[in-house]
């Protein structure tokens, strides 16, 4: 018998173990957790209507865990 070829996660680029939960989507394979994260990120992008990027400027004075609400 041949061993099954390894499956790689398209999100985190780690191998998906046989005992891990696997989600196949658009011809790519993901850990279930990675897929859920991917879906959430895509939903955020659609909400904003722009790619998921934050401006890198003006971060020095802010604590990472505190985010001021946007108007
Ligand atoms: Zn993964």
What's the structural blueprint in terms of helices and strands?
Blueprint: E1 7-8, E2 15-16, E3 22-25, E4 28-31, H1 32-48
Antiparallel strand pairs: 1-2, 3-4
The structure holds zinc ion (ZN).
Zinc ion binds at residues 9, 11-12, 14, 30-31, 34.
In short:
The chain is α+β, with helices and mostly antiparallel strands. The chain has one helix at 32-48, and strands at residues 7-8, 15-16, 22-25, 28-31.
Descriptive account of the structure:
With 71 residues, the chain is of the alpha+beta class. It has a domain of 42 residues. It has one helix and four strands; from the N terminus they run ββββα. Bound molecules: zinc ion. Zinc ion binds next to strand 4.
Category by helix and strand content: alpha+beta
- Alpha plus pi helix count: 1
> What is the makeup of the main sheet?
2 strands, antiparallel
Radius of gyration: 18 Å
Name the ligand types.
zinc ion
Order of helices and strands: EEEEH
Keywords:
71 residues, two-stranded antiparallel ribbon, 1 helix, binds zinc ion, alpha+beta, 4 strands
